[in-house]
Amino acid sequence: xxxxxxxxxxxxIHFLVTLLGVELLYxxxxxxxxxxxxVRDLNFMAxxxxxxxxxxxxxxxxxxxxxxxxxxxxxxxTPCVVLIEYVLDRKVLSKQRTVLLVAVCVSVMISSKGxxxxxxxxxxxxxxxxxxxxxxxxxxxRVKAMYNCSTLALMxxxxxxxxxxxxxxxxxxxPPGILDFAWTWEAVFWxxxxxxxxxxxxxxxxxxxxxxxxxxxxLLGQLKTAIIMIGAAILFGSKYTPSQLVGAIxxxxxxxxxxxxTIKEKExxxxxxxxxxxxxxxxxxxxxxxxxx
Length: 293
Known about the structure:
The protein is an all-alpha fold. It contains 11 helices and no strands. It is globular, with a radius of gyration of 23 Å.
């Protein structure tokens, strides 16, 4: 309804609305704030800066490139997440999960087959976005664990810095003319409404990254895209090739199997870890004997 062609500025509006929503929840005593001991902490500043960079680049790439090209670039985030988690935390995927991740990527690639139109500037934005997107997904969970805080508390601490980064990026990403935009009541309504939905999307995304994993956030995005494609074909008769629909269905099945295997592996790991080691058991026995009267 509103032709607001300024991706970085729109991201800033969305983050401002998100920060306002978080602040209202804090004032309502829905969570406790996190105290950042040193804002020059590299881990904290890394996540603040990266979040400020990622979202404008993502929206700019989507604006300047076709949906198909955008989906293909999103696929590259998955191996980047796996690589970064290995480098930073030495996390290694099992063979089953690796095979299923490859199946997801191949299926999404098939479902995205079609118009791959892209621009020179849009391609540059997409290539810069991919590693930063993977880094922020991984780093969010690491910083949350480091400060042992809630998702909302970390959002309240990080977003002010990210908004400053986005404001600095706006002249580099957005086309000229934002001061000439006609702020009608209709434009204000729709942009504000998009900000409210952005708050819900941002909160749910940060919640998944912090409480589950970075890969889970990536796969949920791919699952959403595949389900939308299948639903659009069934309910609205949207035109997709048979191979695209097969790819979308394959992505859904592969993601479900990946989730199943991941849960099974976690259950197996928890079963193999003894609740009390033998040495601890002996110590407890001796303590019980010593305290028996």
